Amino acid sequence: MDFYKKRTLTFTNSNILEGYTVAGPKENDGRYKGFFDFALEDDMFAQNTFERAERKMFEHAIEGVIAKANLKENDIDTVISGDLLNQIVSASFASRKIHAGFLGIYNACATFVESLILGSAMLNNGLENVVCASGSHFSTAERQYRYPLELGVLRSPVTQWTATGVGATVLSNKSDAKVPKITRATIGRVVDYGIMDTNNMGAAMAPSTMSTLVTFFKDTGTTPEEYDVIYTGDLGKLGSEILRDLMKQEGYDISDRQHDCGGSLYWDEQQTYQGGSGAACTALLFNAVLLGRLRRGEYKKILLAGTGALMSPTTSFQGDSIPAITHLVEVTA
Amino acid sequence: MDVNREITRENYKAYVFEKMPKSSHWKNMFWAFLIGGIICAIGQGFIELYSLWFNLQDASILASGTLVFIAAMLTGFGVYDCIGRFAGAGSTIPITGFSNAVVSPALEFRVEGYVYGVGAKMFLVAGPVIVNGVTISVIIALISLIIGG
């Protein structure tokens, strides 16, 4: 296949120093109860609006990860972060309190992996410490993308539940101890297979995930078997099944090692149907769960694919289909 | 879908449609019938009650008002959306659903102030219902005028 330009990068000095997570109450009642650094008892976080609560989660996560890595605020060169709200206000407003540079980014729920790729690339170019953060809030996302919270509507069985939480990671170009590293990455391209149903984002995103995974395996000459696990962002249960079918068709069997961050966040009794979605999923799972497993040597090498559906309510109402993107990083213990 | 058939960009939508979990229509209809029926029965109860003091027309209007008030209260207490989650059309179609559709955005956008928040967004969900309801009733009135003479 040579219809694409080179999209796979190699990094030599992208050390993952620390990860920090702030999770909402429902998320902390889920499958990963107790894994998070800070769990909210109330998703208002002592603020008077949900938007302010989301902002405060960002501030808390960024300050938290800097302290946890034993760094001071002026050790950080740049914060790269983004969220799901219009004009990425949560990430931008939270950065008012931080003296480091700020790069605001948006790739929907693929934002976290996008920030890891950009952060790693900047470390290759001379920066020392970069904070990558991403998150979402159920109540702010519902308002922007769907209905008022108290409106009584029947939810489709293909819907997902926007996760509340923020995850932040410190990447550094040097580390005294042996820490997990981001070693390779593939920048995704925007793929649109014509799905119109905004409830069914897993189906809209799965083809983009297939495209990025296949590109990565072809570019690097690797196979899925070389990785302990392949974590996708928020394809959900249906999206994961579709991805496995699509990958099988391309000649890769990932069924035994593919997991979904959003799909595994909640218990079935929590009635999230297809599982979690939102920019928080990948950031929470990676920082709270996967990083620990890499450090303990349970995983040697993993792939983390951030999946994003790039529509807005305006484009959906105007009858456009849903374009999607998937970015991929390879993390080596 | 036949496992041997290739999934392509062209047949992707059909493939997804076959793969996706379907809503259980019988279950949804059962709950809609039950909850919708209960709401209507309560409404009828109020009509009977108010009929003790008022004529039937006034009693009906008062009963509707009572249902709207109760639904607004339940929306404020965060109960109505829980009913709507399984009752579906059973709690959307009666007048209580209309109350919920007005109160829920009013609550949601209260933080943006009374003018641009509550005032501007209150009919976010109910607005289209009013517009289409009025338009269609005019059309039906015209039809009945022509046919019925």
CATH topology name of the largest domain in chain A: Peroxisomal Thiolase, Chain A, domain 1
Poorly predicted segments of chain B: none
Full CATH superfamily name of the largest domain in chain A? Stage V sporulation protein AD
The percent of residues in helical segments of chain A reads 25-40%
What is the molecular shape of chain A? globular
Radius of gyration of chain B: 21 Å
Strand content of chain A: 15-25%
Can you characterise this structure?
The complex is a heterodimer of chains A (333) and B (149). Chain A has 333 residues and is of the alpha/beta class. Chain A has two domains: 10-172, Peroxisomal Thiolase, Chain A, domain 1 (3-Layer(aba) Sandwich), CATH 3.40.47; 181-332, Peroxisomal Thiolase, Chain A, domain 1 (3-Layer(aba) Sandwich). Chain A has nine helices and 14 strands. In chain A, α6 packs parallel to α7. Chain A is globular. In chain B, 76% of the residues lie in helices and 0% in strands. The mean pLDDT of chain B is 91. In chain B, α3 (56-76) runs parallel beside α6 (95-108) and α6 runs antiparallel to α7 (114-121). Chain B has a domain at 12-108. Chain B is built from eight helices and no strands. The interface between A and B is medium-sized, with 27 and 40 residues.
Provide key terms for this protein:
heterodimer; A: 333 residues; alpha/beta; Peroxisomal Thiolase, Chain A, domain 1; 2 domains; six-stranded mixed β-sheet; 22% strand; globular; B: 149 residues; mainly alpha; 8 helices; extended
